[in-house]
Amino acid sequence: MASEDLALGTIFLLQTIVGFLGNFCLLHHYLFLYYKGCRLRSTDLILKHLIVANSLVILSRGVPQTMAALGLKDFLNDFGCKFIFYLHRVGRDVSIGTTCLLSVFQAIIISPWISKWAELKKKVTKHIGTSNILCWILTMMLDIMVPVYVTDKWSNKNSTKKKDYGYCYAVIYDKITYFLYVPLLLFHDVLCLGLMLWASSSMVFILYRHRQRVQRIHKTNISSRTSPESTATQSILVLVCTFVSLSTLSSIFHTCSAVYEFSLWLVNTSTLLAACFPTVSPYILMSHDSRVSRLCFA
Prior knowledge:
By secondary structure, the chain is mainly alpha-helical. It contains ten helices and three strands; from the N terminus they run αααααβββααααα.
């Protein structure tokens, strides 16, 4: 085994372990609060779905990528390749959709009551569960074509292009269908990113106006205590900024891998960056949640 493959396999393995443990600990924290009868925040249900989606992304891509980097190339058959790639795509798209839902929901929640969002704010908490379920259903329907473009390495099917992931191939059989389907996937990503940026800008503006109002009330004496809403908003802003940055980098490497004859190095780098958000997001959320600190201390 080459030293580069060993190093790559070790990196993927560490990323998978760290990411899975972080998501597991955060999910355990929310379940513990639920069974203890603690009052959960309105965003906690969205975060549970985000944790599940992130875990799917980490396990469906991190485990096979680690095995491939460590020398196991042909451990999946055609069905296994299609299933793993479908799980990964669903987890990835639900992660994007849930992060978008989280940022938009928080922007509505912290908006002033006198604004035009007042009526919407009264009803939005009732539809969180429905929105999450709808996100999963729409994503599963949107990604139903993904298995068509994936095959195992034993297959000899004719295709115009093959993208080697080390353990499976992503193939293009019909250019017309492919170039009609890809813009639909891109539209989903661009729409979610646009809504995230709009919601984040709104939250920054609302927090800025709130700080100015507090300064006017207290003059130079600003209270050292931060409201739970502000803390939650700051954590979501950090989460969204992290997601946008890593998603942009991953997209750049993904595009380069398509241009430069599907380079395996570029594919691995893109995969590594794509799994960074599911890995670091639980630690971002735990670092901004005081309930985690109190639970650990207890």
